[in-house]
Specification:
The structure is a homodimer of 212-residue chains. The first copy, chain A, is an alpha+beta fold and 212 residues long. Chain A is built from ten helices and four strands; from the N terminus they run βαβααααααααββα. Chain A has a single domain, classed as Glutaredoxin. The first copy, chain A, is globular, with a radius of gyration of 17 Å. At the A-B interface, α4 and β4 of A face α4 and β4 of B.
Chain lengths: 212, 212
C-alpha cells in the first residue's frame, strides 16, 4: 500500500494505524482498513503497540472494559452488533484481554511487508472469531506458512532488538497522547476509535489533495 | 413526536434519549435527534438525568474528560471536528462540565411537551455555542418566554417533587447500566454515544416493523 498515488492529484497523506491484537475495536479496524484506505487512495502505515503499558501509565492496571463492569457489558453487546453490521464473524473470546506479544512482534517485522494486512486479519480472527490463543508459536507458524512468509521470521520475532522496538513504539504512542486503540494519525491530527476510521481516511485524502 | 406512526407498518418502537446538558457529546445528539428520528418515523422519549452521580457511582469524582488529560485533550479536538462535520456551531466552553441542574429540571417538566426539543437545543447552544451559564434563572426565563412556555414553569422547576424526580431518573439510569451520555435505549437494547444514534434509530424502526 505504500506506493499508492491519488491519480495525479498529489501524494495522499498516509494514515498511521495504531492497534493492538487484544483490542476488540482494533479487530473491526484491522478487518476494514485496507479496503477502506484503498478506496480513498490512502497508504496505511501499520503501528502495532502494547496497550497494557499505555493503560498503566494512565493509572489503569487492566482494560477499562474489565475495570468498569458497566462499560464492559456494553462493549460486548456493541461488538456483536458492530460485527453484524460490518459482516464480520464474531465469537466473544473466553480470555480477555488476550496477550498478543508474539503476534505484535511479528507485526512489527511485517509492518512494511506485503503480507502485513493478511497476517493481522488472521491473528484477529484467531482471537475474535475462533476464540484461540494468539501468543502461541504453532498458531503463528501456521499463519506465516500459509501466507508464504520467509522461514526464520518467527525466530527473528524473539530477537532482543525486535522486543526493544515494540517497547519503543509503545513509548511513542504514549508520548503522542494515545490512550486507547485503535488510534489513527494523519500527520499530527489524531482520531480515536473504529468509529473515526472513515473520518480519518477522508481527512488524509483531503490533505493529500491540498498538498498537490 | 409521541404520535408518530410508521405509515401503517405498525407502531415503531420509541427511542429513549438519556442526556445531560453538561455533556459535550449529548450536545451533538440533542441538536440532531428530532430531525433524524422523524426521518425514521421513530418517537423520541426524552430522559434528562444527572451524569455526576452516575460517574460517582462508578468511582469517578468528575468527568473522565477532566480526570484523564489525554482523553480530554482529544475530546476537545474531536468535538470541534464533529461540529464542523454536522454543521453545528461550536465554542469550547470556559467552564466544563457546567452545572445544568435548573435546565435539567425544566427539561423534566418539558419532556412530554411540544417545546421540549427546541428548549433543549437552546440550552445546549447556550453552553456549547455561546459559552454561557446554563444554571442561570434569567437565561432560562429568556428561553422559556421565547418559546411561549406557560408562565410558572420556571417556578415549578424548584418544587421538591421535581427535584426528587430528577434524582429518581438518575437512579434509574444507573440501574439500567448507563455509564455515560448520551445513551439510547430501544426497549432493553442499549446504545452509547452520539456515534450510535443512527444505529439506534435504525434498530427502533426495524423493531417497529417487526412488531406490525
Amino acid at each position: 500500500m505504500n506506493d499508492v498515488s491519488s491519480g495525479g492529484r498529489g501524494t495522499p497523506a498516509g494514515i498511521e494505524f495504531w492497534f493492538e491484537f487484544a483490542s476488540t475495536y482494533s479487530y473491526l479496524s484491522v478487518m476494514r482498513i485496507e479496503d477502506a484506505a484503498q478506496r480513498h487512495g490512502v497508504p496505511v502505515i501499520w503501528k502495532p503497540f502494547l496497550l497494557g503499558p499505555v493503560f498503566k501509565a494512565l493509572g489503569m492496571d487492566n482494560s477499562p472494559f474489565v475495570l468498569q463492569k458497566e462499560k464492559g457489558d456494553y462493549m460486548w453487546r456493541d461488538m456483536s452488533r458492530q460485527c453484524s453490521k460490518h459482516g464480520l464473524p464474531w465469537v466473544r473470546p473466553s480470555v480477555f484481554p488476550r496477550v498478543g506479544l508474539l503476534a505484535l512482534r511479528l507485526a512489527l517485522l511485517g509492518a512494511e511487508e506485503a503480507w502485513m494486512g493478511a497476517f493481522c486479519r488472521r491473528v484477529m480472527q484467531l482471537n475474535f472469531a475462533q476464540d484461540r490463543d494468539i501468543n502461541d508459536e504453532a498458531a503463528m507458524r501456521g499463519i506465516l506458512d500459509e501466507l508464504g512468509v520467509p522461514a526464520g521470521t518467527l525466530a527473528r520475532a524473539a530477537d532482543a532488538p525486535v522486543k526493544a522496538r515494540l517497547r519503543e513504539q509503545t513509548d511513542e504512542a504514549r508520548r503522542r497522547g494515545v490512550f486507547g486503540a485503535p488510534t489513527f494519525f494523519v500527520g499530527t491530527e489524531m482520531f480515536w476509535g473504529d468509529d473515526r476510521l472513515d473520518d480519518a481516511l477522508r481527512f488524509a485524502a483531503a490533505a493529500g489533495r491540498e498538498g498537490a
